[in-house]
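Hello,

I think I submitted the adenosine-5'-diphosphate job twice by accident. Can you confirm which output corresponds to this input? Input:
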Amino acid sequence: MPRIIVQKFGGTSVGDTSRIRRAAARAVAAQKAGMQVVMVVSARGKKTDELVRLAGEFDIDPPARELDMLLATGEQESVALMAMAIREAGAEAVSLTGGQIGISTDDTYGKARIRAIKTDRLKEHLDAGRIVVAAGFQGVSESGDITTLGRGGSDLTAAALAAVLGAERCEIYTDVPGVFTVDPRIEPSARKLDCIGYDEMLELASLGAGVMHSRSIEFAGKYGVPVVVRSSLTDEPGTLIARAGSVPSRPVTGLALVRDAARVTLAGLPDRPGVMAEIFRRMADRAIPLDMVVQDLSVAGIAEVSFTVPQEDLAGALAAAKVAVDELDGAEVTVGTDLAKISAVGAGMPDRPGVAAKMFRTLAGIDCNVVLVTTSEIKVSCLIARDRADEAIRAVHAAFALDREESAGAGRDGNEPLSPAEQRVRTVVEGLQGMEDIVVADVSLDTDQARLSVRPVPDRPGVLADLFEAVAGGPDDDPSTGATVDMIVQNVSHAGHAAISFTVPASEAELAAQLAGAPAATWGEGEVQTDPHVAKLSVSGVGLRSHTGVGLKLFAALAEAQVNVQLIGTSEMRVSVVVAANEGERAVEAVREAFGIA
Ligand code: ADP
Ligand code: ASP
Ligand code: MG
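Support: Only one job matched these inputs. Its output is below.
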């Protein structure tokens, strides 16, 4: 078997002729070392932005098909130049467009999904001793139109080619020496990570760490391709993204920021099955990805749901929300703009309670108010005012001492036996029709949970910190005195009052209620309600949140089974809902059936 390597070069790494030559030299060196080499190349420098701007001169909303036709030219220019540079360096090369590589996609222009890749042509060139220079970011739809995979999509091309070719490694050459604890442009003391697991990287990328396209990590994780992110300008070793070897010793691995979030809240909703499904359906119809989805406990039969969308999707989301609430008497839609989402990610979180409390305390320390909160096993996300974002990132980075070196969990080389969960993903992957199909590996039910809701709480900095520090047993999160908080949900406030809900293991319900009672008592009418037995249903898999269809399918199945949803929490790898204890079994059966899981 020939050894294959995929090397991807981003825009700045092919920005001018000397950089193109440098990239070509890397590929030639790898070939000389005995590898078959596939290069994936992006458009030069800011070319794609320039083309977008140019299109805007004619039409503020250019036809998607024509825009894809235009944007794909950026990569076409780069591959031809790269092939010439390789010839100049004395090796054989051939440049290929997305279509010529054999990448077929669906026809969602601008964010097309890869259906299949035919590799015969590619392999012929490789076997003939040529370096294949593949255009990133593009494919061809069934009808023969050129499509693009979404901004930053060359990473996806690279990961996909590495997967189908069974490449030994996928190298991502960029303008930073690896994956850092946070974007080094925001926090100069950010530290480079030597290695990071797919799960953590997927969360980071999908929560805003722009260094890698999140769908490329989804791909690499699904197919188990080791990815190395490194600088195209130096020979530093970079960051290895692979299956995590062990749970990291630190609770937080990295931070991510999304600067352009907008909030949409649907209030006055009837608290009955089917409402969430209706909302998700309207959003999915317009391919609007919902980000932080927050539903808190209903009051007097009236429910409320909030979610965030990219600012650019706000108009579409509002139109869809209007359609959804028009049928529901008394429901209304409100929005919040100029918001940012800051997230902390770490596979070590489940073993270290108090991470959320520490993040809340840090934000309170800079007097930064938190609008919405969502959590999953390995992340905490807070929605805050955009103009506080940089300051907040720096404060949280310092609070978790992310600039300081710590022995990281060693990466695995891929030869160890798969865990049961990984085995399930592998089985599902083998049965995929299209390469980017949704992978739902498991639907599970945890009937051993209790839900606590604290309301009303004043809407000011420090409240979340007081509450969760108390529940965690104090600021130093001593696990022997505190309760283990699982999901945290905070919805938007009304008239200065907010509500916060969270879950803990049922055995810790009483303790948690007692601990939460202390700060609640200081908030005047603040009251803790406990439901000692609820069921938490989780759909887990890969890249769930970015597939608009997952939420829709989940909520449609629950509605069909007449199960009411109390709380919702979402992440890239898991969507969880809390339902009444006696509805758990019915819910899990319906959802398993919907996702075709035995
Ligand atoms: P390319 O054109 O090579 O694909 P990108 O601009 O897409 O490069 O990605 C590299 C940039 O990602 C860096 O310049 C950096 O500012 C940004 N970035 C965001 N988050 C991180 C992070 N956690 N680690 C490293 N870089 C990051
Ligand atoms: N050229 C495309 C972009 O700028 C794809 C990429 O660079 O990954 O988004
Ligand atoms: Mg990129």
